[in-house]
């Protein structure tokens, strides 16, 4: 008889979700960024331990599968991490880990922190090292004007300050 027509015991089967995709870019992190990734991994492992102690049903099996997938993802991110200490960067050149103040064409001042992909949060001014704005700024010096190519058109930005916290 076809397996499609047999009732299987759902309690004996586990669920394995496909892995989350990894970025093709090197995983640059600051020392704090690595610590944050490791903390996320440990928190997810603790979540999994709690889930495994709960009674099994489909929802709990799905939650376990999600936690296991997240752990595999975070383990890979930690394993691929390349730690770059911002304190070791040249102080007058925009680089990974820098906080940069720019002046826009319409005289708005904007502050960006150039961070790794896992720490990026554009709403909070933390931009990925691989974002178009970071790529435009990296390697430039104080007082330079750079062209930021964006979908709505290009914009010139003047670098007013560079800091490495």
Automatic annotation (TrEMBL):
<dbReference type="GO" id="GO:0003746">
    <property type="term" value="F:translation elongation factor activity"/>
</dbReference>
<feature type="region of interest" description="Disordered">
    <location>
        <begin position="1"/>
        <end position="30"/>
    </location>
</feature>
<dbReference type="GO" id="GO:0070063">
    <property type="term" value="F:RNA polymerase binding"/>
</dbReference>
<dbReference type="InterPro" id="IPR036953">
    <property type="entry name" value="GreA/GreB_C_sf"/>
</dbReference>
<dbReference type="InterPro" id="IPR023459">
    <property type="entry name" value="Tscrpt_elong_fac_GreA/B_fam"/>
</dbReference>
<dbReference type="GO" id="GO:0032784">
    <property type="term" value="P:regulation of DNA-templated transcription elongation"/>
</dbReference>
<protein>
    <submittedName>
        <fullName>Transcription elongation factor</fullName>
    </submittedName>
</protein>
<dbReference type="GO" id="GO:0006354">
    <property type="term" value="P:DNA-templated transcription elongation"/>
</dbReference>
<dbReference type="GO" id="GO:0003677">
    <property type="term" value="F:DNA binding"/>
</dbReference>
<dbReference type="Pfam" id="PF01272">
    <property type="entry name" value="GreA_GreB"/>
</dbReference>
<dbReference type="InterPro" id="IPR001437">
    <property type="entry name" value="Tscrpt_elong_fac_GreA/B_C"/>
</dbReference>
<keyword id="KW-0251">Elongation factor</keyword>
<feature type="domain" description="Transcription elongation factor GreA/GreB C-terminal">
    <location>
        <begin position="91"/>
        <end position="163"/>
    </location>
</feature>
<keyword id="KW-0648">Protein biosynthesis</keyword>
């Amino acid at each position: 008889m076809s397996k499609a027509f047999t009732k299987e015991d759902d309690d004996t089967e586990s669920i394995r979700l496909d892995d989350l995709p990894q970025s093709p870019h090197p995983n640059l992190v600051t020392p704090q960024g690595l610590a944050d990734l490791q903390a996320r991994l440990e928190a997810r492992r603790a979540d999994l331990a709690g889930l495994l102690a709960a009674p099994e049903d489909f929802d709990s099996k799905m939650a376990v599968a999600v936690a296991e997938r997240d752990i595999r993802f975070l383990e890979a991110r930690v394993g691929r991490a390349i730690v770059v200490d911002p304190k070791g960067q040249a102080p007058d050149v925009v680089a990974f880990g820098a906080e940069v103040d720019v002046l826009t064409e319409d005289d708005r001042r904007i502050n960006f922190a150039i961070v790794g992909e896992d720490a990026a949060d554009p709403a909070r001014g933390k931009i990925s090292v691989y974002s178009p704005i970071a790529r435009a700024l990296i390697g430039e010096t104080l007082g330079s004007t750079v062209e930021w190519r964006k979908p709505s058109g290009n914009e010139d930005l003047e670098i007013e300050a560079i800091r490495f916290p």
